[in-house]
Design brief:
The structure is a single chain. The protein has 154 residues and is α+β, with helices and mostly antiparallel strands. The protein has four helices and eight strands; from the N terminus they run βββααβββββαα. Strands 1, 2, 3, 4, 5 and 8 form a six-stranded mixed β-sheet that branches. It has a two-stranded antiparallel sheet with strand order 6-7.
């Protein structure tokens, strides 16, 4: 069995309290009441053909997924590689950092569909990220999934 692979982007800026990073909260009813430890960098699945393109393909996926999950393109400028981490479920996440800014109030995510309520036979659509927000590094480490903390530290 091949493990799942994602690529994502850490958008950062200099704020009044130092470095701030943009994190996204997962959308849908399963995460509506969950907060600390559930936020994530904007990221998404990498297809096999994109993996074949190596780092260039992974970075392109990180750019695409950031745009899909925030409604904003990645700012112009270089991407800094942050390496990869393995999440609890075995998913490998490759990440890059970019300096930039965006207003969370202007962000909007693409949608996914799932059966809701469970076993109802009804499909409902939800945003992949229901909101994004800027956090100082201490707060970001508290909010983000534990496995992604090393990406923020890098």
């Amino acid at each position: 069995m091949r493990s799942r692979v994602s690529a994502g982007l850490v958008l950062w800026r200099r704020g009044g309290a130092g470095i701030e990073v943009l994190l996204g909260h997962p959308g849908g009813p399963l995460f509506a009441r969950r907060d600390a430890g559930y936020w994530s960098i904007p990221k998404g699945e990498v297809e096999a053909a994109e993996r074949a393109d190596g780092d260039a393909g992974l970075a392109a996926v990180a750019r695409r997924e950031f745009a899909e999950e925030t409604g904003h393109p990645v700012p112009d400028g270089p991407l800094t590689p942050l390496g990869s981490i393995v999440q609890k479920g075995g998913k490998v996440v490759h990440a890059w950092a970019a300096q930039g800014d965006l207003d969370p109030a202007d962000a909007h995510s693409n949608l996914f569909t799932m059966e809701w309520p469970p076993a109802s036979g009804q499909l409902a659509s939800f945003p992949e990220l229901d909101r994004v927000a800027w956090f100082g590094m201490d707060e970001a480490r508290r909010r983000v999934k534990d496995a992604q903390i090393p990406l923020l530290a890098r």
